[in-house]
Amino acid sequence: MQPLDYLWPSARAAEDALLQHAGNPPTERVVIRLITIGELADGLRALAPAVIELRETGQSIVVVRPGKVLSQDGTISKVPWSTVRNLWEGPARERERAVFAKLPIEPKAAEKVISQRIASQEVAKVTHYATPPGTSFQDQLVATGWFRRLYAAIGVHALSYIIGLAAWALIASAALSGRWDRGWFWGWVILLAIGIPLESFAAWWQGWLSVAFGGLLKQRLLAGSLEVDSDKIRHQGVGQLMGRVLESDSLESLSLTGGAATVLCSVEIAGAIVILALGAMPLLCVSLFLGWILLVGLVAWQAAKRRKVWMLERNRLTHDLIEKMNGHRTRIAQQTPALWHVEEDRSLASYLTSSASLDRLNALLTAIAPRGWLTLGMAAVGYAFIRHAASEEALAISTGGVLLGYQTLRRLVFGLGQLSGAAYAWGMVRDFFDAAKAAEANQPQNATAVAPSTKVMEARSLTYSYPGRESNALHNCSLEIREGDRVLLEGSSGSGKSTFGALLAGLRRQTGGLLLAGGVDEATIGRQGWRRRVATAPQYHENHILAAPLIFNLLLGRAWPVSPEEMKEAYDICLDLGLGGLLERMPAGMSEMVGDTGWQLSQGEKSRVFLARALLQGAPLVILDESFAALDPETLQQCLQCVLRRAPSLMVIAHP
Predict the structure, then answer these.
(1) What are the C-alpha distances in Å from 327 to residues 106, 338, 347, 354, 541?
(2) CA spacing 20 to 30 A to 325: which of 19, 145, 354, 525?
(3) Is 450 a member of any domain?
(4) Which long-range contacts (CB under 8 A, 24 or more apart) does 599-606 make?
(5) pLDDT given for residue 3 in this prediction
């Protein structure tokens, strides 16, 4: 094997080799423009699989998993990562050594300084290949090795459990037989000591499983929140949406802790059943244990229903609190102070009632489930003892089985309680989870095979009806917009102007008709391709200033980090829109934090930021929906001239 057979001539060849090696699964490319020597030191632990394109030579390296590279023969190379690192670290070190060779400094000290200096040098562009969040969640877990580690964690825990049983069986056998020597003692100690690293490994894997599952779940929910049909959540207020966000976090924590406890309980339940089957009166003891578990499950089901009611009340409190905080000024101005807290007191009373009901049942379940089995199991052992139905060894084994069952039921009660909360949280966020199944991740990003069209936008017989409504909001609407056209769409409130604009912008999907941007439809170019062709500034209540620097709000449609040229373009547009005075007042200029937790912008200033945001996307068609309504006549004239000058094609939606 040649020493450098893992070097590929180009990034494209390396990408093809990586995808072929992986079996061409559905992937999305995440390009990191430049990465430093220090970030490459760990073998791309958080980014593999990836392609490293060296900055100096243009050659590429395929990293199939952290620290492992792909050879040109399609196999994983055995070359150590330190050798691969030397490709970019070696030249950088030699350059630094040439500088330090002229200085009176010890070699060891010089090497430490050199390592620190080169760590921040950018040497390569990295392209990371990830499973798209819209693909099967099971496939995503498989791709990360989650199930493999899950089985390993279960196996290690089971092995540790068996070794623990063996240790106590050894000491019990020695005690019951009356024979004791150092060999028995040290055998017991060794078995207990073996269980320590096994449990440590199981705990480490459990932590890894939690982090990996939680990361994928958050990624999936975030992708789904960007894809969910806005009409499905339009009726929900800020408080309700905030409650759903909180439940998404609860889903992660509750499902992982409850799931882990329940899975590990299955191992322990099986062990307890085996022990009881080896002891006195096995049929009676095993039947009682299984029956008790069934009874605990039924009580846990009732507790789950009460938990659902309690979580509903909790989310209602969250919704009311946020909505009333948001509308506090209105309440002060229009509501009698004596009525401010009437509904709050009623909500708190209802919440306390549901909390008390849940707490009583949980306390009963937590106390009775394990201790009730301990009483019942020991009664069965005592019955066998009184009837002399078993030997001393069998009675001891049964006693051990009862104690194991007691310990298992304590964990089981906790796990079932957590899973019941996770089930409700899942119902709150499931539509976001399912919305991530959008097929656009696998759609092409451009339409290179389609001949260019002189029509920027073409709509033929568009029809649209809102979900759950029989009548059409739009029917048989047609429009053509060519490059350089300026279109004014007027109509009364509720006539469908904004709905039509949302269809053209790709924010909604028509229920009938044909819609083309540049001669191609969305199925051909994908949603991202459509967004590059049509930029829109929705109505004020559907457009938002994010709690972030002003420049981030302006350049939302650009790749980050932005270039100095893009910064200058944003600054020039702000001046054209009359925002120069705002930039002068803000201490950090375009880097100033804005939004609810930053610099407070007036409604007119927000409107102009929305205009700038749409223009800076550089799309062939710009759609502005009521974007000039909050501007005074002089500012409106200035902004209109800026838009007419900068938008290649323009559609303005306004009232007559």
Answers:
(1) 67, 17, 18, 28, 15
(2) 354
(3) no
(4) 599/550, 601/545, 603/540, 603/630, 604/630, 604/631, 604/632, 604/635, 605/579, 606/540, 606/543, 606/545, 606/630
(5) 56
Amino acid in position 195 = G
Domain of 398: which CATH number?
1.20.1560.10
The residue count of the chain comes to 656
Q: What confidence score (pLDDT) does residue 238 get?
A: 67
Per residue in 215-247, pLDDT tens? 888 888 888 877 777 766 766 766 677 777 777
State which H helix or E strand residue 301 sits in.
helix 282-326
pLDDT 10s digits, 131-148: 777 777 887 888 777 888
Cα 607 to chain centroid, rounded: 31
Domain-located, residue 347: yes
What are the Cα distances from residue 472, in Å, to 125, 309, 462, 619, 625?
50, 38, 11, 30, 21
Q: Is residue 96 part of a domain?
A: yes
8 A C-beta contact, residue 653 and residue 625: yes
* Radius of gyration in angstroms for the set of CA atoms belonging to the chain, rounded to a whole number: 33
Task: Quote the pTM value.
Answer: 0.71
Last residue of a domain, one of 390, 406, 438: 438
Chosen domain end from 203, 227, 251: 227
Give me the domain span that covers residue 283. 237-438
Those residues whose C-beta lies under 8 Å from the C-beta of residue 7, and which sit 6 or more positions away, are 59, 60, 61, 87
In this predicted structure, what is the pLDDT of residue 231?
67
The answer on 284 and 170 residing in a single domain is no
Q: What is the pLDDT of residues 519-540, one digit of tens each?
A: 888 878 877 788 888 999 988 8
Centroid of chain to Cα 576: 39
**What is the identity of the amino acid at 249?**
D
Residues 409, 314: contact at Cβ < 8 Å?
no
* Same domain membership, residue 159 and residue 106: no
CATH of the domain at 475: 3.40.50.300
pLDDT attached to residue 438? 59
Q: What is the mean pLDDT of residues 91-116?
A: 83
Is the preceding omega at residue 49 within 30 degrees of 0, hence cis?
Answer: yes
Residue bearing the bigger pLDDT, 545 or 228: 545
Q: Which of 377, 372, 369, 371 lies closest to 287, judged by CA?
A: 377
Q: Given the DSSP bridges, would you call strands 122-130 and 28-36 parallel, antiparallel or unpaired?
A: antiparallel
Secondary structure (3-state) at 509: coil
> Is the Cβ–Cβ distance between 577 and 637 less than 8 Å?
no
Residues 425 and 559 in one domain: no
The one-character DSSP state at 538 is: -
Residues 409 and 369 sit within 8 Å (Cβ to Cβ): yes
595 vs 257 pLDDT, higher one: 595
Longest distance between any two alpha carbons in the chain, whole Å: 103
3-state secondary structure (DSSP) of residue 244 = helix
In this structure, are 119 and 191 located in the same domain?
Answer: no
Residues 168 and 262 in one domain: no
Model confidence at 445, pLDDT cuts 50, 70, 90, reads: very low
Same domain, 328 and 370: yes
Distances (CA, A) of 65 to 5, 68, 124: 17, 5, 18
pLDDT at 633 over 80: yes
DSSP class of residue 442 equals G
Residues 26 and 82 in one domain: yes
CB 460 within 8 A of CB 512: no
Taking only the tens place, the pLDDT of each residue in 327-373 is: 777 777 787 777 777 777 888 888 888 888 888 888 888 888 888 99
pLDDT band at 449 (very low <50, low <70, confident <90, very high): very low
Neighbour order of strands in the sheet with 649-654: 486-490, 649-654, 621-625, 534-537
Helix (H) or strand (E) holding 474: strand 474-482
